[in-house]
Each structure stands twice: as C-alpha cells, then as structure tokens.
Amino acid sequence: xQEQTRVQIFRNQEKKRRYGSGSFYLRIGLxxxxxxxxxxxxxxxxxxxxxxxxxxxxxxxxxxxxxxYTGILSFxxxxxxxxxxxxxxxxxxxxxxxxxxxxxxxxxxxxxVAAVLSLLISFISLRVKAIFFAMVTLALAELAIVLxxxxxxxxxxxDGISIxxxxxxxxxxxxxxxxxxxxxxxxxxxxxxxxICLALFMMMLRFIHSPLGRVLQAIRDNxxxxxxxxxxxxxxxxxxxxxxxxxxxxxxxxxxxxxxxVNPESSLEVxxxxxxxxxxxxxxxxxxxxxxxxGAAFLLITQTFLPDLQSVAKDFLPQATLLHNMLERWLLLxxxxxxxxxxxxxxxxxxxxxDYIAKRKQAFSKSS
Length: 368
Fold this sequence. Notes:
By secondary structure, the chain is mainly alpha-helical. The protein has a single domain (42-367), classed as Orthogonal Bundle (ABC transporter involved in vitamin B12 uptake, BtuC). 76% of the residues lie in helices and 4% in strands. The chain has helices at residues 6-20, 22-40, 44-67, 77-94, 100-125, 130-150, 152-155, 185-209, 211-221, 223-228, 233-259, 264-267, 270-284, 291-305, 309-316, 321-328, 330-344, 349-367; strands at residues 161-162, 174-178, 181-184, 261-262. Helix 3 runs parallel beside helix 8.
C-alpha cells in the first residue's frame, strides 16, 4: 500500500476535524429544522419567515464573497437581486405564460444578464477604488430604480407584476395530506427553493475554500503584496464580483417565485434591500458566510415579531401605558438590540465566536 504524503495526511485530519466537530452537527441540526418547519410550524407566517431567512441568508452570503472575502464594497448588489426577480416575472407573466420551461428560461435569462452586466461594471468601475467604487454602484442601483418606475409599460411601474407559478408550484395545487400537512404548491415551492439555496450555499463554500478563494482573501488583506506576488488582482476581483452578482440574481428569481409579486420597492429599493443586507452582514460577521444565516434570522425575526409586542403587552399588562407607547416604537427596540449585538460581538456573531474559540485553542496549546 502506498504511503500517504504529508499533504494527504493533513487533509484527512482536516476532514476528521470538520465532520466530527460540534459545529458540523449544529449545521446538520439547523438544516433539519428548516426541513421540518412546514410540519412543526405549519402556519403561513412561520413558513414564510423561514423561507425568507433561507433566501436572504443566501443573498447575504453572496454579498459576503465580495465584501468579506475580497474587500469590495458594492451598493449595487440589490440591483442584481431585482434583475433576477424581474426576469422570472417577465417570463412567467408579462411576456410569457406560467410553464416550467419559462421558469427555467427566466432563471437562465437572469444569469446571462447578470454575467454581462457585472463584467461590464467590473471593467468600468474597478478602475476606481474603495468608497468611489461603492458610490458608482450606488448610482447604478438608483438608476435601475428610476428606470423600473419610469418604464411602466415594460416593468409595470409602481404597480409591479403579479406572478403565477406553473403546475405543482401553483397556489391552487394540492396533492393530498402527508403526516398531517397538506402538500400544496406553496409547500413544494418551499422545498424547491430550500434545496436550490442549499446547493448555491455549498457552491459558495467550495468557491471560498478553493485556490481562487485563497487569492481573493490575499487581495483583501494586502492588494499590493498580491500584485507583487504576480497576481493580476483586477481579474480576480472581476471574477469575485461576477460570481457574487450571478448568485444574487438567481436568488432574486427564487424570491420572486416565493412572494409571487415583483415591484421596484420590494426588489430594487436600496434602502429596502441593501440596507438590510448590510445589517445582516454586520450582525452575522463579515468573511464567514454562515454569518448570513445568523444575520438574516436576527433581522427578519425581530422585524416580524417586535411589532406584535404591543398587542401582547396590552393583553397581559393593560394598565402599563408607558410600556405600550414604548413598544409602539418597535424600531427603537430594534436599534437597541442592534447596538448590543455590535458591542458584545464586534466582529459579528460568527466572527466573534470564531475568535473566541481560536483564542481558547491557543491558550490550551500553550498551557499543554
């Protein structure tokens, strides 16, 4: 039997640590939870919340590839999310009919548009650095919103486009009951989007752990040193932008499939999409990918349930008028929670936890 090389031994040890660690079982448990949500919590509000956490966690991860792993700040990421949503809406409703073929063509069309547009933006805008690149992408995002509103004959304007899903994904479809839950078109769509987002997330993990991903991290840490080592940083940055934007576009198409409606405010608005994405990245931690899950869960759960606290307080504490007035301004409570997260987790939840674990391991190795 051929003796293993040091590299092979190291890789086998890494696999054992990876698949035997507590974080691995935590990820499996989290996946199982999302798989069981329609059975454990069959209400529309809970299923919708779980689905949006999955979608926005994937969107944040695609943005984190650019910001956390390459060091590129772009305010135009939400624009690609909206492009994906509109391409699916065009093919299923505006200029086509709700068929499986048109659904696939809508996603493929969005991918082609995203690839061409992101490459064009990369070659034009990467000539400027740091905040100037961010401002260029912000201007393009604002232009996309203006065009979506003005070209109402094409995009539906502020009224938007309502989407009908084909076949087994339609709202009216029902294939019977299974384990106490109706297998409707919404449930089937939930699992389809969940598995697609899982596949996209696995693709992102493979991307950042590849040699290409290592180069991107080197560019993020010290671009001048990467140039001195012979890497053409411009090309690598363009690849990162194209890959991240392409994923964002596909995720936007999945979002349109789930909500069944597309308009400029919900799909392209910088404040509605990009602000939330940035908050999710900060909360979860940049350069972690998994931080997107934590950030999306924190933001969407608080936005969903904090407005209900006032009615709960009125039921249990009817005389506490001051408390009722405070809970009416739930955004204030959200701001306090966000500040607490930033104070106690300065590198985001996942980033700070990873730092703590690394310090504990370092202290243990020194003591031993």
